[in-house]
Structure formats: structure tokens, C-alpha cells
Here is the input.
Amino acid sequence: MTPPLVSGARPSLQDAASPARPTPDARMSHAGARPALEDAPAPAPAHAQPSFRAQVSRLRRLPTLPRLQQRILTTLDDPEIDFNHLAALIETDQSLSSQVLRLANSAFYSANGQSLAQVSRALLKLGTVVVRSVVVTSSVFDPRQVPLAGFWEHSLGCAVAAGALGKTLALAAPEELVAAGLLHDLGKIVLFKELPEAFEACLATSAAEGISFREAERRLLGVDHGEIADWLVQSWNFPPQLAEPITLHHRPAAAQRARVQVAAVHIADAMVRAIGFGNGGDPGVPAIDDHAWGLLGLDLEKLDQAYLRFDQDLDRALNYAVFA
Ligand SMILES: [Fe+2]
Ligand SMILES: [Fe+2]
Here is the structure.
């Protein structure tokens, strides 16, 4: 079975400063090709290392978020949410407040150039799905904390690409796609934070054997980062449009309640890898799933438009540190 990898230099932060536009050939080589391993059932993890597997299973019982973040997520769950109460909670944490304000005022969300100074108004603008992702990334699951060169850029790039696809294809709520893209590899962040040795072993195995980071996870841990994240997003009550892209972006055909969002993040992940921007743990580019491609109604012309928008939005995201 052919691994879904193409050879390529490991991306570096140098790529982040000036991402190269992909050649049409590079894009075409991924469009429409059914992935070899992506849809395959998980292999029996006969050679998974027992110590790592036991450790990984303990991640199910993680005391996950700090108390304030938990309270905010509970408030977000309330169908009759009181935004003033939510704002008051968020305002007790200075960095969280400034992150919410900065995001609401960022070039990506602020279409009319009006600047918002009140957290409560910023919350209304961003919506509960985006706020939920900010709460999670602002605490212990910030992609910037992973000391893998280029990992933050990979997350940011996937977020911007997902938003660019959403806007190009006029999908509903592109800002939610951005949030999902930013968090799509949440399982890797959790793995790094909780089991850094296992994370390192997956990186080493991936590099030594020329397999994807995900395949290395399945070999060593018996699960992949989507499954690891699944345990958490369930306990955090993530809505489907955030949960499914995080847990199923490598298996878009398995999506049930957020098929479009999963397809968009799946393709955004491949887009950002195809141009070598950032580092998702290995230098490979997963083949785009036919079903996801068809579901979004993509063609090469629209993909080209999405890439143009991606370039513009990425420049803004980098220049204005939208998510910083
Ligand atoms: Fe992933
Ligand atoms: Fe990724």
C-alpha cells in the first residue's frame, strides 16, 4: 500500500515568512486522488508499544481545562446564553479578554473597520463557536506551545485556508471554519503536552520510516490524534461544526453532522501542506478525498481562487498577528 506521502523538504519557519504559491501541477497531483491510507481501517496495533498505549489511554481521564475556562464553556452551553454574564467571566482574565478583542478587531473578522472595545460586543460578533475555540486555545491547548518548528504556522495556515475555502465557495459561517482549522490538530497538542516522549517517538518514527505522523501514531500508540482529540471534545461539549473537523479531518467520509466543515478542513490541511507552509509533523501531503472534493463542489479554478485568497489572508494574519 502506498503511503499518502510525497517527498519534499521539511518545511521551516523560513517558509512562513514568504509562502511560495503552489504550482498548478502540485495542486493537481493531489486533487481527486483517493488516499491510500486515509480511508483504510486502522491496522491492528500489534506492534504498538505497550507503555505508550497505556499512557495514551489515561488521556481519557485528563483534568483538561482550568476552572475559569470550564465555567466559560459551561456558560457557552446554555441555550439562553447571557452575553453580559459571559463577558464578565472573560473579563476576569486579561489575556483572554485581549485575545477576544484582538480577534474581533482583526482584519479577518472586521469587515467595516469599526473597532470594538467592549468584550460583550466582541462576543456577539464572533459567535459562540469561535469564542469556544478562543477559550480552548488561550489556555493549555495553544498551538504556539508546541516547540516543533512550524507547528503554529501549520495550524494558522490551515485556519486561513479553511476560511479562504469558505469564502470562495460561499460556505456558511467561514469564521467557524477558521476556528476549526486553527484547532484541527488539537490531538497532537494534547499528545505533546501530556506525553512528550510519545510525541517525540512518533516524530522520530515518521522521519525514519518515511510515513505520516498519523501512521506513526497508529503504530506506536494504537490511536491517532483525531481519536485522542475525540475524547476531549466530547467532554468539552464541542458543537459538531468544531468537533468533527478536529476528530475527522483525516477521515472526511466518516463525518455525519458537519460534513461540509470536515471536508473544508480536510482540504485546507492538504492545501497548506502542499505549499510547504509550516510543519504538521511530517513533510507529506495527504491526498484529497474524492468525496470531500465533490461535496464542496470544488474544481481547479475555484481552488486557484481559494489559494489567491489564502495568500492575501495569510499575509494579513502574519502581518497583523490576527491570532497572536
Ligand atoms: Fe491532522
Ligand atoms: Fe494538520
Observations:
- The pocket of fe (ii) ion (ligand 1) is lined by residues 184-185, 225, 249-250 (CB under 6 Å).
